[in-house]
Amino acid sequence: MPPASPIRSDLDLKLAMAVVASSHAPLLLLDENRAVIAASQVFCHVFGIDGSTLVGREFAALGAGEWAIPQLHSLLKATASGFAEVKNYEFDLKREGRALRRLVVNAHKLDYGAGEDIRLLLAIADVTDARIAEKMNEDLIRDKGILLQELQHRVANSLQIIASVLLQSARKVQSEEARSHLHNAHHRVMSVAAIQKQLAVSSVDRVSLRPYLSQLCESIGASMIHDRDQINLEVKGDDSRVDADISVSIGLVVTELVINALKHAFPEGQQGKIVVDYDSEGGDWTLSVADDGVGMPKRPGEAKPGLGTNIVQALAKQLDARVTIVDGTPGTKILLEHARPAEGKAVDAGPAEAAV
Fold it and tell me: Where in the numbering of this chain does the Histidine kinase/HSP90-like ATPase domain appear (predicted)?
């Protein structure tokens, strides 16, 4: 490439100087020795430097020497040589009697062709306020996390107290029906405590369902299965992650269905197995709780809807899922199926085919 004519070079330099001088951002045009050729008025105003004294001064000597930063000086030298380019170099500008400012520098070598003088275009951005805002946000998040941990600790303690009171009351009452209701309430409180405990150690936004449901079922089994050789409680599923609020609803559904199976599927010490499974594909997912117990009552009217039924139905509606009960022969399988709505269509949660 032939060298540019002296007239063209002079015009190019004047154009660059005019662009820099009129810029609305802090800009500097430097020569290969890092001496100032031109500066924008904004640069002079923002950093309190007399524009009439700038031209010809080395960049590191500007002001009272606050720009003499060895690492930046080395990067500018390498940029002028074509070996590097300053990209988003961040540093603190310290000036006596003034507040510290956080700056970001970018430098680019201008290409005027072979044999032409080297020019560096230096752009400076003040990010002090942005960094302060980021730190304040980080502090707020940290404080929120500490408060959330304290709240979770208090909730866990409160749930344990409630569960203990319910259990003590169940031991004192004479009525078998009242004792049964108190035991049911105790199991539900312990299960909610397990949900709360698992969420406390999970991501704030997303929850891995398989370990979450495994921990939940382990807690239910610890409080309700007295002989692990009699009943096996197993959790299967893929590696799905869901929003925290959805995981709570799914956890409550699993709690109700597993408790229901433990209470009714294996009478008189019968051995058996309960399997909880969750699988998803795209926006579609299926949750199932299956047992190999005695199955649903065969005679009409024997399966009377209770509190568990109402809870599961309400949660299914909240999750936009359909509840289906299948005769497992042996046992019972209860499905919650959520289908991603087709465009312009809503999914009907629908009623269960039988009482849960």
Answer: 245-342
